[in-house]
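Researcher: Please generate the 3D structure of the following complex. Treat every line as part of one assembly.
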Amino acid sequence: MAFVSNPTKDELLIGLVAALIGAIADWDVKREKYFKFEPKASWLMLGLLLPWYVVKGSLGTLKAFFLRLSGGKLASTFKVSHYDALASDPRSAAKRALATAYLTIPPNSIIVGIDKERGRVLTHQMVPALPTLIERKLGVQS
Amino acid sequence: MKAADIAVAVLLGIAVLTTMISCWALVLFRDKFQRMHYLSVVTTVSTFSLLLAVVVKEGWGQATLKTILVFFVLLLVNAVVTHATARAARVRQYGNWVPTPEEHISGADGDR
Amino acid sequence: MNLWLWAAIGMLMCAIPCGIASFRGEAIERLLGLEMMGVVTTMFLLVMAEAEGNPNFYDIGLTMSLLAFGAGIVFTRFLERWL
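Model: Done. Output below.
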């Protein structure tokens, strides 16, 4: 309804039916417990730091572009770090999901995977950087 | 030209320029993992500049609301797709994404 | 011609390097060209909404962003496991 911006009776009825279908589907998925996700509020608040890392990462990545253009050598590399949230409970799953999202959104780093068996996380960095506050708070240990 | 028009011109310029740089980076770079980083530049810097340009032009209305939604969708979606693509690239290259000792990756100094 | 139309032309020009990337290299490298083009198309549609003064393009842009995600994930899954 917010996007159609045309609250006639027909639109309202269709919106109601669509919302009902969505609500039933949501209830059914949650009932089966397919997805476990119980993050701490402090982890979610780390998202507020993302703009800083996005700006920093973008500058580094754009600098790398011009370095490549001028024929310079790039220092992009894979990095393996230890990771502490390896259990299957909802809290650990949430920590892993947030770590993957928060560390892949900024342009400088990409989380390739978290190896639960060996307790390691593989990252690719465009410009090698020191561990960030987000990394430390979300379980990545250098 | 009014200040708002100048602001829109600058913001659109930033959006288009960063998008062009990121797209040409796909051609310029040889390593696929280096190319993947430029998807994030477009979905963060370019899209945010475009969002600001829409806010300056339209104010806080339907158009801005939809653009904000597109921005957040692209932000989250890109993180997932980039992560999945990086993983698939390593699986195709090495059979498994987990680093092997032969690669000599920094930090891979043995199991826990 | 207004500013937004020029920006739309600029976005459209980005299709050239994305196309080149999609025609060269191995499968994953070509997929990156496709994923980038999906994002660029979304932005192009948003810019066109302002350029033409047609708010329907915002909805199409939103749909495009979601579909590009779906396409990216499906291709990635296939390339990782079966192709």
